[in-house]
């Protein structure tokens, strides 16, 4: 058997059986443990396999850190993002409160925390406590209908005096966005992306 054939055989076994000791592989392939180590060296270097307490196994697939919105899949630019933390400690990034609220609605039972930023101060606030300003003249250039989030009612009202719009609470904001989306999925930005 050529080294490349042995490598393929090792991968097949690991795929089927999980983890295998080097000694076992050496016996099965009728080669020395030294040879097995030489065979698997490139596989270890390329992260195809990894060392375990019992020998070697296929390396777990690691998802690259997400830099797209979990709802509309638009690339994150982090101007007014929202974060959702699920019950199993997964962190989802959403491009703007529009997507944050719609995503929340989709996976409501799995959500442990939903966090947004105060639009003026950039401080972190719980989205459920935030004030939402809709229909302002200020354009985030993200998803429509757009909402801005604020930590205090006073500041929301100040911003409203300058830029107009209506003030909503968490549940009202979700309801209003859904109503205006008129049952359609995603948001305007995802359509732009697809076209
Ligand atoms: Zn989005
Ligand atoms: Zn967006």
Could you give the topology of this structure?
Layout (H helix, E strand, L loop, with lengths): L2 H15 L1 E2 L1 H8 L3 H13 L3 E4 L2 E4 L23 E5 L4 E4 L2 H10 L4 E7 L6 E3 L4 E4 L12 E4 L2 H11 L2 E3 L1 H12 L6 H7 L1
Antiparallel strand pairs: 1-3, 2-3, 4-5, 4-6, 6-7, 8-9, 8-10
Helix pairs in contact: 1-3, 2-3, 4-6
The chain binds zinc ion (2 copies).
Write a brief caption for the model.
Helix content is 39%, strand content 21%. With 195 residues, the protein is α+β, with helices and mostly antiparallel strands. The model is unreliable at 190-195 (pLDDT under 50).
Written description of the protein model:
The chain is α+β, with helices and mostly antiparallel strands. It folds into two domains: 56 residues, Winged helix-like DNA-binding domain superfamily/Winged helix DNA-binding domain (Arc Repressor Mutant, subunit A, Orthogonal Bundle), CATH 1.10.10.10; 113 residues, no CATH class. The protein contains seven helices and ten strands. The C terminus is likely disordered. The structure holds zinc ion (2 copies). The site of one zinc ion has 8 residues, from helix 4. InterPro entries: DeoR_HTH, N2O_reductase_NosL, WH-like_DNA-bd_sf, WH_DNA-bd_sf. Keywords: Transcription, Transcription regulation. This is HTH deoR-type domain-containing protein. Pfam families: HTH_DeoR.
